[in-house]
Design a protein that fits this description.
eight-stranded mixed beta sheet; EC 3.6.5.4; about 50% helix; cytoplasm; 2 domains; Rossmann fold; receptor; single chain; alpha/beta; about 325 residues; GTP binding
């Protein structure tokens, strides 16, 4: 099918397939039970499929959209066999996600005339924020960009130390202060240093506390305001990192953070260790914010650019 373009190298596609293996296996085990003894897609099969999709963390709203599309397909084609169901799912879910018009998975590129390009990273502690920043810095450096990191999560000493480890690992400069310092001050120093170094990209880590949305919103607003004193129009991207292994909790985190601040892109991590990969489909559909990256492994190269067609192909391909 033309929707499923091979934009990844074969190695990256293999990594994606492996990273989604638990989600894929779990889904087809449930689907097998749902269609047992059935030869055609009928109301009973659709009811069972609905349960399978919801239990695979696709989300209720997105599941209903998918079921409606398949019902329309059944009405149009008159007869669909259950052996065709995985192919139909791939096609209809890809079609649904294509309607979001959020792109097909392109790496972040520095726009002409914007230097440095500033990414502010938000997300709850433990979502994989620091690891994502480190892997992004590695990928940007490989593309030839000069990168500077800012350790503005000053509420945890571990956050500063972890970012330092990644900065050393990928060999990029980091700007930091002591634990308890003003995050906005760290952001200011980071941008000032980046400008003086003629850096291309700045990635700012921020504290991930959701217990008080008002404080979080005020803090992030202050960080933005202070950064704009150094580089007008910053941040250019506010990236929310979500832990895919938490399933429906990732939806809730996305809701909370999008209420607290303007989020412009998403990264969904830890998909390789879970059977909850369906959450990416729901998040892509429900939030009008592009998922730009997915984490499908521990390796530094395993933060992949998200392409909805490749993702759906890997998730719903029946393995021999």
């Amino acid at each position: 099918m033309s929707l499923f373009k091979n934009i990844f190298s074969s190695k990256k596609k293999e990594t994606l397939d492996k990273g989604l293996e638990k989600s894929n296996t779990s889904f087809f085990e449930k689907l097998g039970k749902a269609v047992a003894g059935k030869s055609k897609v009928d109301d009973d099969v659709l009811d069972n499929l609905e349960e399978v999709l919801v239990s695979s963390d696709v989300g209720v709203d997105t599941t209903l959209k998918i079921i409606n599309r398949i019902e329309a397909r059944v009405a149009k084609d008159k007869y669909l066999g259950t052996d065709e169901l995985n192919t139909i799912l791939r096609e209809e879910i890809a079609g649904l996600l294509s309607e979001t018009n959020l792109g097909e998975g392109t790496e972040i590129r520095v726009p002409e005339g914007i230097k440095p390009y500033v990414i502010m990273v938000v997300g709850v502690n433990g979502a994989g924020k620091t690891t994502t920043i480190g892997k992004l810095a590695h990928q940007f450096k490989k593309q030839g960009y000069k990168v500077v990191l800012g350790a503005a999560d000053t509420f945890r000493a571990a956050a500063i130390d972890q970012l330092q480890v990644w900065a050393d690992r990928v060999d990029v400069p980091i700007i930091k202060q002591n634990m308890g310092s003003d995050p906005a001050s760290v952001a200011f120093d980071t941008l000032s240093s980046a400008v003086s170094q003629d850096a291309d990209i700045v990635i700012i880590d921020t504290a991930g506390r959701l217990h008080n949305k008002v404080n979080l919103m005020n803090e992030l607003t202050k960080v933005k305001r202070v950064m704009q004193k150094v580089v007008e129009g910053t941040p250019h991207d506010v990236m929310l990192v979500l832990d895919g292994s938490t399933g429906q909790n990732a939806f809730e985190q996305a809701k909370q953070f999008t209420k607290a601040t303007e989020v412009t892109s998403l990264a969904v991590t830890k998909l390789d260790g879970t059977a909850k990969g369906g959450v990416v489909i729901g998040i892509s559909d429900q939030f009008q914010i592009p998922v730009k990256y997915i984490g499908v492994g521990e390796g530094v190269e395993d933060l992949q650019v998200f392409n909805k067609y490749e993702f759906v192909d890997s998730f719903f391909s029946l393995k021999n």
